[in-house]
Amino acid sequence: MIRCPEGHFYDSAKHQTCPWCGVAAQGQAEAVEGKTQPLRPVEHAPAAAASVRAPEYGATKALHREPSGLSPVVGWLVCVEGPDRGQDYRIHMEKNFIGRSPAMDISIVNDDSISRDKHATITYDPKKHVFWLLPGESSGLVYLNDTLVNTPMELKSDDVIEMGKSKLVLVPFASEKFQWQ
Prior knowledge:
Elements: E1 2-3, E2 9-10, E3 29-32, E4 35-38, H1 47-50, E5 73-81, E6 88-92, E7 94-99, E8 106-107, E9 120-125, E10 130-135, E11 142-144, E12 147-148, E13 153-155, E14 160-163, E15 166-172
Parallel strand pairs: 7-8
Antiparallel strand pairs: 1-2, 3-4, 5-6, 5-15, 7-9, 9-10, 10-13, 11-12, 11-14, 14-15
């Protein structure tokens, strides 16, 4: 995993530039004539330049992503209890996978009782303006307001999600009153 100048983490084996903002990581290596050389520091490219990249053949494209490849924030999770107390996490449209791994959309790094990959999923449905909490693919449990999540459960403002040692509160932004479309 590497970090772009804007602070996003991404897998350089899968992406040549940051999938969130289209900027290459500073100091990322580039192969030139069989030798690996560091790249020059990269300044943030405008969104229009990032959208000029050629799409991957057969790549799945989200319905509600902006043309620049960015997915606007639709809400936040705020950690109110646990090792990352005070930390906030952006929620984007459609599915957001939660886990400890930096590859997850919402990465809760310091809680070692949260599964590395897909402990839970938060989904924002842009057609109905509803947030959903789904159990993950791991063995770890997820609770919504002290109720075990076994099936998708609708989330409301200020709901408390508990996983591992962490408690997270939902702060929605997108709703029927405000929409990105």
